[in-house]
Each structure stands twice: as C-alpha cells, then as structure tokens.
Write a structure and sequence with these properties.
Length: about 400
Amino acid sequence: MAATAPSRPRRMSPTLREEARVTPLELFFDLVFVLALTQCTALMADQPTWEGLAKGMLVLAVMWWAWVGYAWLTSVIEPEEGAVRLVMFAAMAGLLIVALCVPGAFTDEALLFAGAYGVVRIAHLALFFLTCRDDPLLRRAVFTGLTVSTGVAIGLLVLASFLDGIPQGAVWALAIAIDMGGPLFHGQDGWRLVPGHFAERHGLIIIIALGESIVAIGIGAEGNVTAGVVIGASLGVMVAAAMWWLYFDVVALAAERRLADAAPGRERNTMARDSFSYLHLPMVAGIVLLALGLKKTLEHVEDPLKLVPAVALLGGTALYLVAHVAFRYRNVHSFNRHRAITAVLLVALIPVAVEVPALATVGAVAAILTLLIAYEVRRYAEARDRLRHQLAHG
C-alpha cells in the first residue's frame, strides 16, 4: 500500500480576499483604534482651548489615514491567512504605541509617536507589495498612490517632532495634506476592493466612534451620580442613538448598494475613496468632538459650557450632519436640505450654550436630532420602507 503523501503546509504568502464578511482579526485590529479615539478626546479635554482642539483633530486625521490604509488592504487580502495575521499583530502593537503617545505627540513623545506611526505605515506598504507582486496595475497604483506620499508624510512628522508651536502644527498639517492627497492626485486605476466588506468596515468604525461618546459620558460623570448626571447621561445616549439612526437607518445601506452597483475599477474605487476614505473622516471627527462636549457636560451639568466645549458639542454634531449631506451628494447627487438646515441651527445655538446650563444644551441637541429623524421618517416613509426592504432582500 502506497504511503499517504504528507499534506503541504499552508503557504505563508498573502491570499486575495474572497468573502465579503469582516473577519474577527479586523475587529480585533479596530479595537486598538478605540484607544486612539479615547486618547484624542482626552488630549482635547486636558487642553480645552482652540490649540487643544486643533491638536486633537490633527492627531485624529493622522490616525484615521493609517486605519484607512488597512481598510483598503484587507479588502484586497485575507487578513487571517498566511503570515498576514502576524504582520497585522505587529501593526496593532505599533498602533497601540502611537495611541499611547497621543498625549505627548506634540511634546516629549513626538519622536516616538512619529517612529511608531512609521512602523505601522511601513508594515501596511510591505503587505501591499507582497500582495501585488503578480499584479503590475496594483503594484503601480500602490507605488504612485501610496509609497511616495506615505514616505514624505512620515518624514515630515519626524521633522515636526523637533519643532514646537505654530511651525510644528503647520508641518503636521502639511504631512496630512500630502499623505491624504496621494490617492487623489495619482488616480484610482489598479486598486481592488470588495464593496460589501469595505462599506461594512467603515460602518463598524462609526459604531466604534459612537462607543467612544458613551465612554466619554462615563468618564465625565466620574462616579458622581446625581440626578442631573442621570438626566445628562440619558440625554447623551439619546444623542448617540440619534446619530446612529441617521447613519444606519438608510444611509449606510444605500451607500453600500451604490458602491456595489458602481462599475469595478476607476468608478468604484473613486467612489470608495471619496465617500468612505475622505467623507467618513468628518463624520468620525464630529463624533469625537461630540464626545468631548458630552464629557465636559457631565463634569458640571448645572453650569454653562465654556466656548470651546460648546463648539465641540454643537459644532461636532453639525459637522457630522454636513458630512452626511456631502456623502449623499457624492453618491446620488442629491442635496439633503433638512440635515443642512439642522446643522446651521446647531451652530446658531452656540452663543446660547455658553449662557444656559450644559444639561439644557444636551437636551436641545437630543430634541433637535429626534425631530429631524421623526420628520424624515414621516416625510420619506414610503421610499424609506421600500429601500430598506429592497436592500434587505438583495
């Protein structure tokens, strides 16, 4: 009897993604981003000034673009196959160090922040080049659209670590502009993605950001659970739930279908870049600013918010809605007047917010968003029901 041939070991090279589901490793990877968001909120909360707000948004943009890179990567390759999972674990460690350095990203830990960030981005590029070695179009897209801009951005962050004040902030802003501008100026030919996976991955990061707003409520309360804190926490959850509704009730489903229906190649890739990689950043930024406002509200529910936290709470919510308006216009070329008007109303309430108790301001935000949802559900009831059922049944 012939001996049975030993089974060949699983190859360690990357394999292309075949399934649309988000894997457990991707969810595990995203959990590190939770800490990054928490650290951004903490950075702004410790420095509730315009400078602190600017620093928080710069850090968020840098962290976001690192996450976006891995979202594109894992829409091409299977993250749990071969040696990819080991590189993902290494990238998680690097991203964790980056998140831990956020409080000192502009001071004594700036160089460590830049170095750890460089490791995360280089690991991302290495995996992409291993994946596309037999695909000249993808290899060219990675080189022209990512490698140069990523290398320049990392170098600028290292340079910024030796600066301070306005020059340091300006170099950070330049690094972000160059890094995020790479795919914009070098086209979208050659890229690949799985529409369902790509859309779901971005939806999950919205949930993670909303979870950070809930965490901010708990941190703001600091164990001092009074009647005002209970009411404030409840209203904060209402606001977070309303923001969830505004995205996931129809918008996320319709965007996923739109991405899937787009022609593979340049059309689909450009839509993914604009709608998800770019326009989801202001959505997440709006939620992070909301988290800052909620944290400051729960610290002193009976006192008026100071100007910067008031701008964070009301302006962050408005930014979230404006991003939705742009998101819809990019996908279906239709302008959502109701959300745009609501955003303007929220900004107009900022002068009031610095005069009335913080609890009243959060209550006003919750009421305004609830009315917006009720209006849209009633106004578009038939179209909404038809769209949700069409998407649910394929």
